[in-house]
Design a protein that fits this description.
Layout (H helix, E strand, L loop, with lengths): L4 H24 L11 H8 L8 H14 L5 E5 L6 H16 L4 E6 L2 H17 L15 E3 L6 E6 L9 E7 L5 H4 L2 H15 L3 E11 L7 H9 L4 E4 L26 H11 L1 H8 L18 E2 L1 H4 L2 E9 L12 E8 L7 E6 L6 H14 L4 E5 L4 H17 L10 E6 L4 H13 L3 E4 L3 H9 L9 H13 L5 E4 L11
Parallel strand pairs: 1-6, 1-7, 2-4, 2-5, 5-6, 8-14, 9-12, 11-14, 12-13
Antiparallel strand pairs: 3-4, 9-10, 10-11, 13-15
Length: about 500
């Protein structure tokens, strides 16, 4: 089959670019100081004498590193498909180029596993040892996870996400491949721990004026890149390059449907990959558009938001609690969600007022639930009887008594502790609530991103335990009186007498 003329022209143009770049390298090699290559790609071309792969999307990475060095930006997120050279250009050539330019500065490279980060460190170590870069390693600095520049304070540390960085500051933090695989991407616990490592560990080790580069293939709406986009998008330069161009304002100026690197992965190869992966994985990994799994019970388009004035006078208010079954760092969160029923013309509507979900001990989540009840003047604390309802009720009563002693209850009587018995499975209980969302009868007071993400990603499997979603289903079902068998405690029932 004859290649399209445009593709032949692009291949010829790429060959011409490589020959011109090699000629420029040869002409300038003797004159240029070893630490003044203008970009990571130029350094790679010089060191490998033009053998290193070059492409337009890699040029964007080069530009980002140059702008970081010139302090024109300090936050860059690179979202690209796998096997397109982004990690090699950024975590290897980019880090090496930065160290050569600023040997007094510290670089940290982090990946989902320490071993992957250390592979980058080992490559940089070997490159510094084998070539004349104008800098050299301190004698004895041979470990792949820590490199120190001789005669300078600068160097490199390689760690796994979740690893400690105490005493290890960073002028440049490069996070490469924070997600291992689909299993980790779909784990709320791992996504949460990755985010907490980024915010509580990595970000606190940044020196003044430090820069952060995130390099990843998107896996999930709520992966590290997704959380950054949801919370800090305005602070980041975001470079999103789908495998097949989808927009008229494509960063590379590609027409719609053109592959990212046609000289290496042409359209036919992309179509075969899309067919073998299926829609969800292709859209996430290759198009950088992660979405809720097909068949999810709740759809994002169904969410509606309101302010306090929109709600009017509320009827019954409940705090629903879905406690974690197990303890420890790997345990699920305890879902704590505040729901309410409307009145008058809105008596058939439900409102989600707050999400106080937490990862804590029974004493901790009991206190959080009671404080939520105080803040929203709740009429009831609703718990499932199927999963240790009696124990949960005891935890809540104990927490309330402690708050009374601290004078934190504001003179409020303890809400009724309502134990509801779920007769059906999770999906059967969730479907009527999903129908209410679709019909526009459930409103969220403010945005609850973690709750909404969890609801959209749950496909109805019986083995998963979506804590927030379980709590909201229980709460809405109870405030709208949708078919639960109720066993009320003897504590605080008087608060429901007028309801």
């Amino acid at each position: 089959m004859t290649e399209p003329t445009s593709l032949l022209e692009r291949r010829l143009d790429l060959l011409r670019r490589e020959r011109e770049l090699r000629a420029q390298v040869d002409a300038a090699e003797q004159e240029r100081p070893k630490t003044e290559d203008p970009s990571p790609g130029a350094l790679a071309a010089r060191i490998t004498r033009g053998r290193e792969m070059q492409a337009r999307h890699l040029d964007l990475i080069d530009s980002a590193f140059v702008d970081i060095a010139e302090r024109r930006t300090d936050r860059v997120a690179l979202f690209m498909p796998p096997r397109r050279g982004k990690s090699r250009r950024a975590a290897r050539w980019g880090a090496l180029w930065y160290l050569r330019r600023f040997p007094e500065r510290r670089v940290v490279i982090a990946s989902y596993a320490a071993g992957l980060a250390e592979e980058h460190g080992r490559w940089i170590r070997d490159e510094l040892a084998s070539g004349d870069h104008g800098i050299k390693l301190r004698p004895g600095s041979r470990a792949a996870n820590r490199l120190d520049i001789d005669g300078q304070d600068g160097g490199l540390v390689a760690v796994g996400i979740g690893g400690g960085l105490t005493g290890k500051g960073a002028d440049l933090l490069i996070i490469d491949d924070p997600v291992k695989d689909r299993k980790d991407a779909d784990s709320p616990t791992i996504r949460k721990s990755t985010w907490e490592w980024f915010t509580d560990v990595a970000s606190t080790r940044l020196h003044p004026g430090a820069a952060v580069v995130l390099i990843q293939t998107r896996w999930h709406e709520d992966d590290l890149g997704g959380r950054i986009l949801a919370r800090e998008a305005d602070e980041w330069r975001v470079l999103t390059l789908p495998e097949l161009a989808e927009r008229d304002d494509d960063l590379l100026g590609r027409p719609r449907g053109e592959p990212l690197w046609p000289e290496r992965y042409d359209l036919a190869a992309d179509l075969r990959t899309r067919k073998s992966l299926g829609g969800r994985s292709w859209n996430a990994l290759y198009q950088q558009r992660p979405a809720a799994p097909e068949g999810a019970v709740f759809k994002r388009a169904w969410f509606r938001w309101c302010n306090e004035a929109d709600m009017g006078t509320l009827g019954v208010v409940a705090v629903s609690v879905d406690p974690a079954i197990t303890d420890g760092d790997d345990a699920d969160d305890t879902g704590i969600v505040v729901t309410a029923r409307g009145t008058g013309d809105r008596r058939d509507d439900a409102f989600v007022l707050a999400d106080r979900t937490c990862h804590d001990t029974p004493a901790g989540w009991g206190r959080a639930a009671c404080l939520a009840a105080i803040d929203h003047q709740a009429d009831a604390l609703v718990v499932e009887d199927n999963q240790g309802g009696q124990m949960t009720a005891f935890v809540l009563r104990t927490a309330w008594q402690a708050l009374e002693k601290e004078r934190r209850t504001r003179g409020m009587s303890m809400p009724a502790v309502v134990r509801v018995h779920a007769r059906d499975g999770k999906r059967i209980r969730a479907e009527p609530i999903a129908a209410l969302y679709e019909a526009g009868r459930v409103w969220h007071h403010g945005e609850h991103a973690d709750l909404e993400d969890q609801m959209c990603s749950w496909v109805g499997d019986k083995d998963s335990s979506p804590d927030r979603m379980d709590a909201v289903v229980t709460g809405i079902s109870w405030v709208l009186r949708l078919g639960h068998q109720v066993r009320k405690s003897k504590v605080g029932d008087r608060r429901l007498a007028s309801r």
